[in-house]
Structures are given as structure tokens and as C-alpha cells.
Amino acid sequence: MSQPLFNALFDDTERRPMSVSQLTNAIRISLESRFASVWVEGEISNFKAHQSGHWYFTIKDSNAQLKAKCFRSSNQRIRFKPADGLHVRARGKLTVYQPRGEYELVVESLDPVGAGALRIAFEQLRDRLQAEGLFAKELKRALPVFPRRVGIVTSPTGAAIRDMLNVISRRTKTVNVLLAPARVQGDGAGPDIARAIRFINQHHELALRNGRDKDGVDVLIVGRGGGSTEDLWAFNSEEVARAIRNSSIPVISAVGHETDFTIADFVADHRAPTPSAAAEIVAAREDQLCTALDHLGRQLVRLTRYKIVDARARVQEHALSQVFDEVKTRLHDARVGANTATHELQVSMNQLLRHASLRANNLVQQISPAQLQNRVATARARYDAAAARCDVAIEEKVQMGRERLSLAAASLDALSPLAVLHRGYAIAQDVDGRLIRDTESVSVGDQVDVRLAKGRLRTRVEEKSAADERGSN
């Protein structure tokens, strides 16, 4: 037996017993100093997420198990949610839960084994948001046909914003851009992107409330250039997804390259494979419309020219017809008559006005200062009577002119060969264009042109009869 142990049997200090709390606290201090940072690998079981935000679970292998807990302040940095049966690698420190005298691992970081943490986090968030209906096709909004103002949420110093501005300025002259700068990579990038989306929406809603519709934002592009999964992770955050879904402005997600997919792509109203493609989407319709309008304009010019040439040819054909010579003469006579009536009417009106003016002047000269009030009333009455007679005379002249014009128009219409044709009559002409007035002008077998109200007929004389015969062909 060693001397220290032998001495301890008779030492009152060494023989003094420790309380359970003292012993447990000593063990806790020893464990925390010895295992301040340790890595443990095993399978998760009995996982529970407390309403306080803390996680409680057990890490086990085939021969042993270890209780573990992860406080809310630590699990917010973990990119996936643990589940029973998941094989993980945990880093933390050992401590003792004194009320039960159990040692446990306080987890500070957690990584899955055999599958990337980012992929698991992506799949878990995707499935949860899909179950909530955030990816439903019914929620997708159509993009505006001709956007006037485009909002962009991206890094102000990245290549993506330069590419988008270059495409928009090259393809359209009417689209304005409103940039909301945001970090698109690293810690805090997700909340920064969500803040920028909300800022654009607030600007849009304020403009509409104040009646400044031109300052509103028609479509919003959210994205960045390519990178690794870690670089694009900000667009896989739940905060960004909900900000996109809650946006009152249609959102185009343009993250990374064509092969990259993020949660933002699923929840957005439209996905563009690259930022440049998103810029082409908002500017494409204007470019296509300008091309289509240019093509239609050229077609319209060609068609108009053809119509003008065709109309000119038909007018010349009618102008050379002898049938319209008499119509032209009647129109000329009617125009001369109308001008004459107008001139006579103007002369009569001028005479009446001069006569009334002379009478008014005489009345004014006859008025004395003493009789001013009475004579003014009398002169006003006489003037009104003269004006009434003048109006009656003018109306009679106008009516006479209208009757003469109506008579001339009726005569013209009665003499119009077209009016006769519409009543069922026809004009017959021989092959030389001479009018056929009786049967003696043609012989059996001659060709006769018959002009109807609509169209012409080429006929041949089969039989003819005298003018006094009735009912024969």
C-alpha cells in the first residue's frame, strides 16, 4: 500500500465526504476543460425541436449513445434540419447536466455524413415550401408585355448588372431601370436580398398611391452571376423565397448559369437561365414589335399604292365614257344655280342690314336728352321689328334657294342614266359603241352590248320585231 493512500485513511480532511452537487460540479469542470472541443460521429435518434428553438437529440453508434443539445443561437447557423436516422458529424464540448448527473454534448456545428449539408437543406426547404403551395402554377403571374420600368436586385459591382444594363440599352430605348443594391453572397446576403425586394415593392406601392403610375415598377429581376453552390446559397434562403412570393410585382429569377437551380427559381413568376436572358425577356417584345411594325408598314405601302393605281384606272375609264357627259353638264348647271342663289341671298341680306342701320341712325339723331329714355325704348322696339322682318326675309330667300337647289337636284337625278338603269332599264350599244334606239339599227345575228345597273352583257340578236308589236321576242 502506498504511503499517501495509507496516510489518507487517518486524515480527517481526506475522509470528509463530498456532496453530490460538489462531485458533479467537479466532474463538469474536469470534462469541460478536458473536452472543450471535440468531434463526434454517429446516428441521430430521438430528435426533438423545442418551442424555445433549442434542439435535443441523441448521437449513437452500435455500442454506445451520447445525449446532445444544440441551442437556438447555434442551430440558426446550421443549413439543414436534423432528423432521426441521419448520420452526422458534430462538433461541440462535453458538459454535465447536473440535475440528472448526465454528461452531454453541447453541439456548436453539425454536418451530415455522406451527403452535403447544402443539398439536404435545399431539399428540405424545397419540399416544405412546395407543401405550403408557394410553387403553385396558379400563383404565377404573367409578365407585362411592354414594361416601362424594371427593378433589379443584385450586386452593384458584379458582372450581372453590367450584362443586364448592356442588353436592355441595346435592345430598347423605352425601359428605365431601378437598381436596389444588395449583397448576393456570404453571411447576411439572404436578408439583404429580401430587404431590397421589399424596398422595390414599397417604392412601387407609394408611387401608385400618389398617382405617379409612371414611377411604378412593372417587373422585378432578382439574381446574380454564376458561382459555386455556396456562392448561390443566399437565393436558397426561406426569407428570400417568401419575399419573392409576397412581392406585388411579377418577379424574374436569374441566378447563376442555366444548369443552376435555386429556391428562388421555383417560387418566382418566371425563371431566366442567366441575368442576360432575363434582360432579353423584358426587352424582347419591343424589339419584336418594332420588326413586325416595320414589316407591316412596308406591306401597307405596297397595298396602298396598288389600290391607288387601280382606283385611278377605274376613274379614267369612267371619265372617258360618253354616258357621263350629260351628268357633268347637269352638275355644272346645278353648281352655277347654287352660286347664283347664294349671291342673291347675300345681296338681299346686305341691303336689309344697310336699311336697318340707316333707320337706326335716324332714330338716334332724333333723340333729345329730355326724351332719351322714351325714345330709346321706342327705337329698340322698332329695331327689333326691323330685325324680325330682316330674319323673315332672309329665311324666305334661303327657302327659295333651297327649293331651287332641290328642284335642280331632282331634275339632275331624273336625267341621270344610272337612275334609269336602277329602275330596271338597260342601255344597248352596238359593237362600235353607238346607242341602239330602234330595231332598224341592228340585224339578226349582230352582237349587242347591254349595260345594266350592275355590269354588262354581250348578246346576239336572234329575232327582231316592229315597235308596235306586243308580246313578241
Task: Please give the structural blueprint.
Elements lengths: L2 H6 L3 H4 L4 H15 L3 E12 L5 E6 L4 E6 L1 H4 L11 E11 L4 E11 L4 H16 L16 E6 L4 H13 L4 E6 L7 H21 L9 E6 L13 H8 L5 E5 L7 H5 L2 E2 L3 H45 L5 H42 L5 H44 L1 H6 L4 E3 L17 E5 L4 E5 L13
Parallel strand pairs: 3-5, 6-7, 6-8, 8-9, 9-10
Antiparallel strand pairs: 1-2, 1-4, 2-3, 4-5, 11-12, 12-13
If you average the pLDDT, what whole number results?
82
For the sheet with most strands, the description reads:
5 strands, mixed, barrel
The third-level CATH topology of the largest domain is: Rossmann fold
CATH class of the largest domain: Alpha Beta
Across the major sheet, the strand order is: 1-2-3-5-4
Précis, in short:
The chain is α/β, with parallel strands linked by helices and 473 residues long. Helices cover 48% and strands 18% of the residues.
What does this structure look like?
The chain is of the alpha/beta class and 473 residues long. It has four domains: 3-115, Beta Barrel (OB fold (Dihydrolipoamide Acetyltransferase, E2P)), CATH 2.40.50.140; 140-288, Response regulator (Rossmann fold); 323-415; 424-460, no CATH class. The chain has 13 helices and 13 strands. The protein has helices spanning 3-8, 12-15, 20-34, 72-75, 117-132, 159-171, 189-209, 238-245, 263-267, 275-319, 325-366, 372-415, 417-422; strands at 38-49, 55-60, 65-70, 87-97, 102-112, 149-154, 176-181, 219-224, 251-255, 270-271, 427-429, 447-451, 456-460. Strands 1-2-3-5-4 form a five-stranded mixed β-barrel. Strand 8, helix 8 (238-245) and strand 9 (251-255) form a beta-alpha-beta unit. Helix 7 runs parallel beside helix 8 (238-245) and helix 11 (325-366) runs antiparallel to helix 12 (372-415). The longest helix has 45 residues, at 275-319. The chain is elongated, with a radius of gyration of 51 Å. The protein starts with a helix and ends in a 13-residue tail after the last strand. The model is unreliable at 469-473 (pLDDT under 50).
